[in-house]
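DATA SHEET
Item: assembly model
Revision: 1
Owner: S.N.
Input lines:
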Amino acid sequence: MTLSYKPLRSLYAGLALGLLMTAGCKKALDIDPPSTQIVSSQAFVNDMSATSVMTGMYSNMMSGAQNFVSGNRSITARESLAADELVNYLPASQDATLQEFYTNTYNIANPYFWNEFYQRIYTCNATIEGVTASTGISDAVRAQLLGEAKFFRAFIYFYAVNTYGDVPLALTTDYRTNNTLSRTPKARVYEQIVADLKDAEALMGNDYFKGTTAGTTERARPNKAAASALLARAYLYMEQWANAEAAATSVINNGTYSLETDLNRVFTNTSKEAIWYLQTVLATNYSTYDGQYFMLTRVAPGTSAQSPVAIRLSFFDSFEQGDARRTNWIDTFTINNTDYYFPFKYQKNLSTTPEALLVLRLAEQYLIRAEARAKQGNVTGANSAASDINVIRKRAGLGDTQAANEPDMLKVVAAERRSELFAEWGHRWFDLIRTDKADAIMSVLTPLKGGVWNSNYKILPIPYSETQINTNLKQNPGYN
Amino acid sequence: MNNIVPGKGMPIPFSKLFMIMKLIIPLILVAVLHVSGASYGQKVTINKKKAALTDIFKTISEQTGREFIANPTLLANTMPVDVNVKDKDISEFLPELLRKQGLAYAVVNNVIVITRDPKLLMVPPASLVLAPDPPKVVKGWIADLNGVRLPGATVALKGTNKGTTTDGSGYFEIRSELAGDSAELVVTYTGFITRVAHIRYFIPTMIVLRPSTSELDQVQVIAYGTTTKRFSTGNVATVTAAEIERNPVSNPLLALSGRVSGLVINQVNGLPGGAVSVQLRGFNSISGGTAPLYIIDGVPFKGGGYGSINNALDGGNMLDFVNPADIASIDVLKDADATSIYGSRGANGVILITTKKGKPGRMRSNVTAYTGISKVTRKPEYMNLQEYLQMRREAMLNDGVRPGPADYDVNGTWDTTRYTDWQERIMGGSAHISDVQGSVSGGNNQVQYLVGGGYHRESPVMPTDGASRKGSAHFNITGTSEDNKFSVNAGAYYVSNNNDIPPVDPTGSIRDLAPNAPEPFNPDGTLNWENGTYSNSFSSLLQPYLGRSNNINGNITLSYRPIKGLDIKVAGGYQNTAIKEYTGTPLYIINPYLTGNKIASARYGTSNYNIWNIEPQVTYNFRFGKGNVETLLGETFRHELNESLIQSGSNYVSDALLKNPAAAATLTNESSGMSENAYNATFGRVKYTWDSKYILTLNGRYDGSSRFGPANRFHFFWSAGGAWIFTQEKAVKELVPFLSFGKLRGSYGTTGNDAAGDYAFLDLYRSIPYPYQGSNGLQPQALFNAALQWEATRKIEGAIDLGFLEDKILVTASYYTNRSNNQLQNLPLSAVTGFSSIRSNIPAIIRNNGWEFELRTTNIKTRNFDWSTSLNIALPRNTLVSYPGVGPDDPTFIIGKPLGTIRVYEYAGVDPQTGVYTFYDKERKKVTSPVDRTKILDPVSVKYYGGFQNSLRYKGWTADFLFQFEDHTVRNPLINGTFPPGFQGNQLKSRALGRWQKPGDVTDIPKYTQSILGFLPWALYGKNSDLAYSRAPFLRLKNVSIAYQLPASLMKKLRLQQVSLFAQGQNLLTFSKKEFRDFDPEADAINFGPLKTFTGGLKVNL
């Protein structure tokens, strides 16, 4: 028998077709995600998990000693050194970066805040995208999370433009887009900051959230007032005085916040003037890394990487006589017959009243409004710059201000900002730049600190590796 | 008894029915006798004249208990015979008796099958031929020498395009329009000699094929099928069980060393269960996924290391969990034609392991046992006491210092007259190895089975307790339905390994011991710390370790043949490997004089690998024109799940509780992993063989893997291979008659490498363990890369296979080029993306090309004496062709050089004036602290390698010698200790004696020093210079196997089938450059190298 293969061929073809139809079946490749980690689609599947992405960021910022919010790498420590508030005692061999900020001489190889800023921005963008796309999230949590993410994105971009100038504006998680972004002009970034904060104001309520539920006394997640407070600051930096005044007024008139009369209670987690703080998550001896790094207890500054700095004597001397902030927020440590002054805003052990890392507090809002009012010519009288300044001065145990015209009042506002907000979030340094005082002061001070002042060094260099990977990123002037 | 009336279409003339009845009756009788009978001898006594053959058979049956089966038509026309034998074995007279009748016999399952004599084409008497009844038909069966039918054999009618393949019972039928009363058939079957048979029409004829002894016709296992070297279009190398059995090794990979061209197997670690490096045609991938794909009985096996927590094993090797004695053959697939059907996993080549199966025939039992010893291949020659003390004192003198308080060896603390040869003491001993394997197999045409088991034990050379013990079991069973349409094959093997050898490689610590270091043990057996002056390196030899692993692999194949040529199969397989390990650091091995906390600790490792694989397949073979078409279509479903957990505990109340994690005061989970991946693919192959002359193979696989991004989950891989057997051309045959075989073949195709790791494309979030507002948070871990896909390798190969003088000389030369693109790498990203990099495919190209030569010669082949030789040489070259964004000064990647090439300082000699190392700087000036690494060095690729084997047989004696040679660059012993000469701790004579002593001395050994200033140039520059590396070409007598088979006459008396005695050796002699005289050149010169092993044993077949 020779084979008649024609019918067989059709049988065979049928079998082939059957096999082909099952092939390429995507189902067969569906596997469970790893049990040790989770994929993004599952991160935003419900209220609990979606909330934990922002929670993870707060936790991550507070669990490391080396984040931009606290410790040796914080904006507070670094920019206080860059300005005239702190002296660095730690040898450059132990921490070159502190010395670089201290001498206002930056290294283009050092990423400084850059990587962390964008890492946080990614989380915000991922939350915005994830929460928007998710169908399993309740409306309340969706609004809160979108608000938080937009608020936090604005918060980071605020520091990004003030430390780097023009920055790439990444508003998506798509790495292909972000990998080739050019720098966006500072003014445009501010527009985004304002837009995000206005969205955040609209999305969030006055209640604070704890996890997925609203209505807690913990002010550990941003709320509507936090967005308004940051908006006030942004308008101040943008010199939109009326807007700044309006935003600050909305916070001051909110009713939830009042200045603590006891200065030692300002930086606790029950502080009445706290608008937003970050909670402590580590069981160290101190509530905050600021407390740990600034307080001098056993050794002279610079002896240990954990005690690198002390307050500059001239800064200590700049306080008015009788200013309660100098006596309450600065402490003295004497060793080998030398007195060292150190910031004592954070002072507590975990065992006593727990502290929290205050990010936004009411006192700043009074100062913002005072400045905005002064700039608009509302210097004295009721609801003027003077009335706001006097609230702050009164709490510090000082008499009313005597300033009666705009230039004098602006000087008083600057002095009060210096005394009230020292060693906090780089306020002093950014004020010097914002008000164009940096060149005058630093050209004298920087040589004393061992550096050479260059007007370009008001902002940091774009990390060299970034300009290599993304050739659209052009370096700041004065760095190469 | 279906063999009595074989197959279909048997024409039985009515007139012959009587004859059949006559035959059946005695057969029934025989069967009855057999059932009732006791045991019978093999000898018979017959004295008959003019007897019918059937009567003779009946008599034999009665006397021996054996049944006879015959085709009645064969017996119908036999002549009466005279037989007069006394007490003779049937084999002594039956062949001659049958030959006269044109018959032969074979013993199958204790049954004697009578067949037509294959040597003698006896034309049956004309009386049997019926009147011509067109159309004419040739029909019959194809069987092997044992009478076993061969399904799927190709039968072609010579002079026509007609042909067929045999069915499940080996039966065929072809209609013929040719004139005459007989036809010429060409019968071909894989592994057998092609035969031209002259068959008369209408008479069903048994055509017996002889197995080919030619290397060209040995069966090679390929992807989803088999082939032979003769008809293969791809590059496949086969290592048989006989070759594997010669190696007294526990990891089957080690038996491949030197036997396969293009495959480098290096035993980088001489401890039982240690790591083995496998390199098949070079490195195709930058990020390390260079392991070949292992497939055992059709089921992918997770090979490579398993991340053992026993550091001395260098990660271990999973193939150690496969028993070499269970393996029937290992086939190594190299080119595109052979590997592209494995799609995304075939880029690094494929190693197919086939386990043993039962064969039809009587029950066979065999037992093999051997025992032996192993020793280190080379004993390093260290300084003696005088040389050592001289060195130490000279170093102090050079540094201008007196012995310090910690210089116990020379400051008077330790006895300077005491001398211990630590190398001899710790590494000079013998490891013991013993192995027993047994199996029982057998079956008939319907059912075949094999059951085997084994035990292997290996101890280390160090003077410690502990051994690696391996127990294994293996079975395989095949069943076929009566009509041969349905069959099932199931098999499983199991290996359980128990290793409690201390987890230490003492090679380095021996070197750091002063020759006058104190006795390691106190008289009471505890460790001697010599009042805190002695960090006793024997302590690690007392460290407890327990590694237990269980590996089970099972597979089952169901196949159904609805019509001739068509097979529908489903193959399923499962692997589970469970590994549990423990290492302890009990208090009794901790130096009590150390400051700080002395706490007992332990580590625990658990890992589990699960793989299942299901592959439905359809094969359909048919004739088309003058050729054969073989087609295959199948689908793969595969799932892999890996789990691991490493824990460490500390602070145990008692050393006795170290094995118990629950007894640790602090237990830390170091790492926990769980990962899964799944594959789904459709594959197919078409092979067309035209007239045994032109062959074309097309392979394709549409492959999908869960490891890759959704945008690139599926991809099509394909290959085309062709061969031209030009010796089949008449002109060639006439032109070069001494050329018995000639084939040109080539292939081109694509394969992939999926070494991305599981979940690499996903945007994963990990849990942050610090609660904020009382709950744990999540943090983004990686970016989503929807486009992540496999590395792609394009393979091209061209080869020529030649056979001379009736295949007595076989030569193969092949040239290949593999180009690998799409390298899986971490692509650096701007931090603006939120991450520093993303796992992606980078268009970096790596090329592997080279020549491979194989030569096999049968030098002498006579009745008593055989001698054959084989030689293989590979000349590989690896080149990083391009890597985007890499400049000429890139520290890691050097374009145009082999992958893994490094930049080192260029050694410029020891300054004859000062006795310190100097190096060339950029301007070729000699400096002592170089900045620029000006020298480029390749410590990875192998320049050439191969094997040379001789096999000899003289009567019952056989001897095999395998030499392995290799040229590679490794870290040399010259500069790779812990300290330079002068420090406390012994030194090799060869690297320390000829040092610089005074200005003017020219040497490569700097002046002795024991200060940090002397240490730094040695450690920072010397070790990172070309001085630290050497080319280490070596030639090694890898394997010797001598066996003696006891004579058959003795066997008969012992009632045994076969007994052989054998002696084997591994790594017996090693020839290398002088600088490697202290260390084995195969391993890196500072680790435990492979051992030399001598064994002796016995193999008994019952």
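QC remark: Residues 103 and 450 of chain A are 6 Å apart (CA to CA).
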